[in-house]
């Protein structure tokens, strides 16, 4: 830590010389004494011995959702140790914001604060640097290297009560009603007693009502329960905010969630909801199929999925991707902005293979204010082509779900998909 003298030393010595000259000229010994004391004080302050290096230390707490559920709050504690300093000037720089400076008194102190972010995944939340100020502001010194708080923020999990299911669940046990008769599910029908039916299933009221001959027995049949395979496929080709005017440079530092934030939230919300029902869930990213998480369930698989979803970042696709492999009879959930043709092609292939496909639109709510004329024309062309792709997806028989909408609208869309499967 190299000390840099400040103008306070020259000002102190200059003032002392003027006081000594005035003492000689006017015969004032008191001014001479004050001048000598000022010289001694200035010299002592500027030559104070070093007692250790100044250190900045950042500690982070446990992230939690804010009150409106639109971001995450991360507690932060800053500890400062600057032996020999009277003041410490701390500079805090957050991405996309102006630097803020705070003056702390004392050589050792601690400050607690909260950092809010609307983004998930790996990110730099803030950078902290410090400058120490010596006694009487006679010197300053930089406090070593700056400290950057890097954190991995897990995506927020929305509550999903109604879940779309494949046409025919393939598992033999689980938490969903299968179309075949069995045990554990909802009421199916009243059926004449047949070999293999258990005596405990005889419905005596129905037998008394429907029996026509002695020996007629009727049993109450229920639906069998089954688990399902769910293949989550995330399109990582874009990372855009809802502010259309910023799409050209894709500035993530804005205080707005991006399409990748929405995709991570949707993927983790759906994965957690299916895992809570003991279903088999897999996860793949279009540009990095080698990082796929194979199908599974349970607590350990839940942690693997959460970690894999949290680290997904945007990666531009240079060519057509290899089609991700999904299990037979699986429900395919494709999360994309649909700003190019590749997701439409993949949805068509999966539909042709007999899969039920749910296309989750992860583009944030659009903001088109303050656009120039040429930007308005470009936005109309891009959004018009996107609307055509969404219409083509619907025409294939794919269920379309917009994620970044009001919670009631999203829940209603999911409920409609669930009822559609039950009717089928």
Would you write up a description of this structure?
The chain is of the alpha+beta class and about 425 residues long. It has four domains: about 5-45; about 55-155, Immunoglobulin-like, CATH 2.60.40.10; about 175-225, no CATH class; about 230-424, Rossmann fold, CATH 3.40.50. Helix content is about 30%, strand content about 30%. The protein has eight helices and 18 strands. It has helices spanning about 5-25, 30-45, 205-210, 260-275, 300-310, 340-350, 375-395, 405-424; strands spanning about 5, 55-60, 65, 70-80, 85-95, 100-105, 110-115, 120-135, 140, 145-155, 175-190, 220-225, 230-235, 280-285, 295, 330-335, 355-360, 400. The strands form four sheets. Strands 1, 5, 6, 8, 9 and 10 form a six-stranded antiparallel β-sheet that branches. Strand 17 (about 355-360), helix 7 and strand 18 form a beta-alpha-beta unit. Helix 4 runs antiparallel to helix 5 (about 300-310). The mean pLDDT is about 80.
């Amino acid at each position: 830590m190299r000390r840099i003298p400040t103008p306070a030393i020259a000002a102190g010595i200059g003032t002392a010389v003027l006081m000594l000259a005035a003492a000689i000229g006017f015969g004032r010994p008191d001014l001479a004494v004050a001048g000598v004391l000022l010289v001694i004080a200035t010299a002592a302050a500027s030559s104070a011995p070093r007692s250790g290096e100044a250190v900045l230390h950042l500690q982070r707490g446990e992230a939690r959702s804010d009150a409106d559920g639109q971001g995450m709050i991360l507690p932060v504690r800053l500890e400062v140790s600057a032996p020999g300093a009277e003041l410490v000037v701390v500079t805090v720089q957050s991405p996309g914001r102006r630097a803020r400076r705070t003056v702390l008194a004392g050589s050792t102190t601690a400050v607690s604060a909260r950092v809010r972010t609307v983004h998930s995944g790996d990110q730099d939340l803030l950078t902290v640097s410090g400058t120490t100020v010596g006694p009487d502001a006679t010197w300053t010194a930089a406090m070593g290297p700056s400290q950057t708080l890097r954190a991995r923020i897990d995506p927020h999990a929305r509550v999903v009560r109604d879940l779309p299911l494949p046409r025919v669940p393939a598992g033999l046990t689980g938490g969903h009603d299968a179309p075949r008769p069995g045990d554990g599910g909802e009421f199916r029908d009243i059926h004449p007693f047949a070999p293999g039916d258990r005596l405990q299933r005889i419905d005596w009221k129905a037998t008394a009502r429907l029996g026509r001959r002695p020996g007629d027995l009727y049993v109450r049949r229920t639906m069998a329960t089954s688990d399902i395979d769910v293949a989550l496929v995330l399109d990582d080709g874009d990372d855009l905010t809802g502010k259309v005017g910023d799409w050209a440079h894709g500035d993530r530092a804005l205080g707005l969630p991006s399409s990748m934030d929405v995709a991570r939230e949707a993927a983790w919300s759906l994965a957690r909801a299916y895992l809570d029902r003991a279903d088999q869930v897999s996860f793949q990213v279009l540009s990095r199929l080698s990082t796929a998480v194979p199908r599974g369930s349970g607590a350990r698989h839940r942690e693997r999925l959460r970690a894999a979803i949290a680290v997904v970042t945007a990666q531009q696709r240079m060519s057509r991707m290899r089609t991700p492999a999904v299990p037979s009879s699986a429900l395919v959930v494709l999360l994309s902005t649909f700003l190019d043709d590749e997701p439409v092609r993949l949805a068509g292939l999966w539909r042709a293979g007999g899969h039920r496909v749910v296309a989750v639109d992860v583009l944030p709510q659009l903001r088109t204010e303050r656009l120039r004329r040429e930007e308005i024309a470009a936005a109309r062309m891009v959004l018009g082509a996107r609307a055509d792709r969404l219409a083509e997806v619907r025409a294939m028989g794919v269920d379309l779900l917009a994620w970044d909408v009001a919670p009631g609208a999203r829940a209603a869309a999911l409920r409609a998909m669930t009822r559609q499967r039950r009717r089928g």
